Amino acid sequence: MLKHLLLLLLGGVIPALAIGQTIQTGVVFENKTRVTLQGIRIENQATHKVFITDKGGSFTIAGKVGEVLVFSGSFYRADTVLLTDNKPMEIFLVPEHNMLKQVNVTATEAKHTGSFQSPDYHNQTVVYQPDEKYPQYYKGGVAIRLHYFKKDEKRKAKQAAFLKDQQQQDEIARVFNAENMAKYLPLKGKDMDDFLILYTPSTKNYFSAAFNLVSYLDTSYKAFLKIPADKRNTNLSTPPVSGKQ
């Protein structure tokens, strides 16, 4: 009797668990083009489980009949689907922005159809390309970004200038250091340190076409000797030496 009771209980529990763990599968496409969409976010509103579509647009997510799935992604209108059964489904998402007239891009020597200002790319222009086989349809997804912000160009130029200045300063430091200067000047210790502080040239002076190292050191050394020893480390207003021959 007890054995039959256990079998009845198990017979009721197992189907219930199976129902509670129902899996929903499917594929997400772009509307009209049937291009499979990768990276679409799918959320079960009842359980808050989330799944992201793979390269083929496929998804697998836990979901029971009566629950709602929300499909969303960049550049596409979000869509909700009520699960009425758990058969494999096909979902078609509509692009978020209306397509504009054809744009000719001379710089890339290519024609692109459809464009819009994307808030996801700081309002830069993005475009769609037509399908080669079916020109009346778009391939789907962002095809190209036509231009970049001027502030980005300024930032890159500023970074490049900073790196160039750092490289130039490193090159000067490899020349104007105590070990290397000892090959040219009869200075040691504090005198050498004071000389380097006073006469290490600026990048503008060092990299000018008129700069000559030997001439610069000769002129600088003579000027250095004229400064009293007790004032050399404080005389930082000494005018720069041009280094011309």
Automatic annotation (TrEMBL):
Signal peptide positions are 1-18
The record's section on SUPFAM superfamilies has: Carboxypeptidase regulatory domain-like
Keywords noted in UniProt = Signal
Keyword Signal in the entry? The reply is yes
InterPro entries the record matches: CarboxyPept-like_regulatory
Q: What is this protein called?
A: Carboxypeptidase-like regulatory domain-containing protein
